[in-house]
Design goal:
This protein is mainly alpha-helical. The chain contains eleven helices and two strands.
Amino acid sequence: MALAEEVAEQLLDSILDGVIPATESLPAEAELAASFGVSRLTVREAVRILRTQGIVHIQRGRGTAVNPPEKWTSLDAIVRASAGRMGRGGHVSERLLEARRMIEVGAAQLAAVRRSADDLVALEENVDGMRIAAKEQRVDDFVFHDIAFHDVIMRASGNLFVPVLFSTFGRLLIETRRQTSAVPAIQWNAIEHHVAIADAMRSGDEQRASVTMEAHMDQTQRDLRHHVMGEASHV
């Protein structure tokens, strides 16, 4: 990683940690250069990187100000910001679920007709892994196989953009799944729906694949609201 990129990452960390709050201005260029032990030119390039991601903007006569996350254009930065908000009522998990629904229902339709025999085997192996992990109360293993199951479908869609979009959720997806999968009832609900999705993949029926994935998203939302957010179960 180039030095300017490293400084940009450290500045982003400071913003995410609240050291430099949103809407506040960055320290002066000379101060940042001294703080990071780099040249002012390197700091200037680091700030330019953050500007291209919508994280900061230039205020004429007032320096460089931090934008609220809603204005950021870097998906990775948005995911990192969202991860820092985990545990605040489950609303980040709901927003992530909305995004997942838009990607995964369509991906399931494509995968139903494009999946290979190896894909079907991988789906079954991950369902088996989820069952074993649930019985042995190994949450991390359950989450691993859960995410791997969905990753198989993303790749089986045959569209190169789909798995890239899915993988960008990265750490946030793991954290949200770990949060919900700590509840045994949610684990067994998830297994039931994953079995139905695998059967739909095997059938090659696009409509069935869409319906079963949509049902899984609905169940995930009900489980999140009921078991994690403490609301009455509804969709």
